[in-house]
Task: inverse folding
């Protein structure tokens, strides 16, 4: 998902600004907000800013928070992301929480 977003050409916002240095990202759903956090931590040079409303910063914590009756949904997420519950290295690799040091202020 992140590569799809990061590889896309800049699209002008409401103001029509398409300059790469003005590129921004926002998300109001779990997946879009996760993509925002990933964009800011894994490809920070591509974004001027990002707004996350409900994004999970730790994929393992998110999946472990699913209620028991979400069993099929939990399995679907594990199939998509990999088993972050059993593989802490994978979780650290894909969770924005562990890459905050990559975010840098642009001048």
Result:
């Amino acid at each position: 998902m992140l590569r799809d977003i990061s590889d896309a050409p800049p699209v002008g916002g409401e103001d029509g600004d398409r300059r790469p240095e003005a590129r921004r990202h926002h998300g109001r759903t779990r997946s879009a907000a996760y993509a925002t956090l990933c964009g800011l931590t894994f490809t920070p040079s591509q974004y001027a800013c990002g707004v996350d409303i409900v994004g999970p910063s730790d994929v393992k914590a998110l999946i472990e928070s699913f209620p028991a009756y979400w069993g099929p949904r939990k399995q679907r997420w594990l199939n998509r992301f990999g088993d972050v519950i059993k593989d802490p290295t994978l979780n650290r690799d894909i969770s924005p929480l562990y890459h905050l040091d990559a975010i840098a202020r642009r001048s």
Q: What stands out?
A: The mean pLDDT is 80. The chain has one domain: 2-102.
